């Protein structure tokens, strides 16, 4: 009955509190917290370190074919390795349906990929792009089997759903217990903007920003909030990038609509100017929605502080700067034919820690809350994101004084560049423990790819439907 591992003398930080003490681990779970705990078979001296739950990144694209048919640069092995080096111990990536595919089949295919390569525990969002045939029944069955998150696009050819299909997916989630996540941008406004820019000969990467106007985000966010209200089904609005977007979410939540929302690292730490680089260099940081203005960044931070936004994810979507990725449609492709996304799994926690703890913005408990505890709680990842006895022993030992300047190609994914090169952060993960096993130690990989397990999502409080605002049929 002894402890397998005792992490001794660190400063333990959870979403609720901070205190000096020891953490004991047995059979891959937290067994005890306290001071002067009994000797473990293995001991780690954590003096001078923060001891926190490992990061939970509930929005990342891994080994996924994009709607445009371009493959991510990462496999589960390279993506989860990168995550672990950055202190993240759980990912939720996408099982992506394309029209014509059966949802059950899609999930089976991604499961094979993750089982082969994942270094850390993982779950999936089911991208629903086609509800024909038996797909809604398959979706219901997957949800009941613990795949309790669906993801819908309101834009992008091939993968976007029309309003009626969206409402049917919301009904299916409501009946079975799940969250429905959205990439919410108005498709027509984007296409209309793209056409005008191309007609004017404006094709450089920086025109990606005006091609995804703020109003496209606002229209679709508002519509999805109204759908949540109409059906009573909880929704998660991905990657809020604008000040007005925060206001829409805040107003919806104020009306009692079951709406949750995230922002991503690159909206907090980059503005639209990053796209304006010589030649095609801006392609490296192109994502949708695009980065916005400094005033939007302030509004996003304020939204996090107030709780209008509950979490910060990476939207890790790696494409190499070559013909396999960003330039699959040619080295001088117009902005609308360049793969969208940037790597973020490894940099998310260091950037957020530097801003929130080292620079003092919102503090360490809130850092743990928005990067680990809240994502785990909302998505029903019951054993993750916390350090209470019984929780999975996913723990990061963080050196708050370590200083690092990001290099041009220093990440452990397969993307080939670091979009934050040159930026200094204070604070770095020293030792990363997953289910009681050290997987990264002092910059060395120790864990074995494939050791990660699928996390079954429980029905979380956030998934519980509220009364729909629309009529219900009367007998
Ligand atoms: N935007 C998305 O919506 N998904 C992947 C990458 C991106 O930039
Ligand atoms: Zn697995
Ligand atoms: Zn998206
Ligand atoms: Zn995404």
From TrEMBL:
Pfam families named among the record's database cross-references: Amidohydro_1
InterPro entries recorded: Amidohydro-rel, Hydantoinase/dihydroPyrase, Metal-dep_hydrolase_composite, Metal_Hydrolase, Metallo-dep_Hydrolases_sf
Cofactors, names only: Zn(2+)
Domain Amidohydrolase-related residue range list: 50-438
EC number(s) per entry: 3.5.2.2
Coiled-coil boundaries: none
Organism superkingdom: Bacteria
Post-translational modification: Carbamylation allows a single lysine to coordinate two divalent metal cations.
Annotated Gene Ontology cellular component terms: cytosol
Keywords of the record: Hydrolase, Metal-binding
Similarity-based family: Belongs to the metallo-dependent hydrolases superfamily. Hydantoinase/dihydropyrimidinase family.
Stated name of the protein: Dihydropyrimidinase
Organism: Pannonibacter tanglangensis
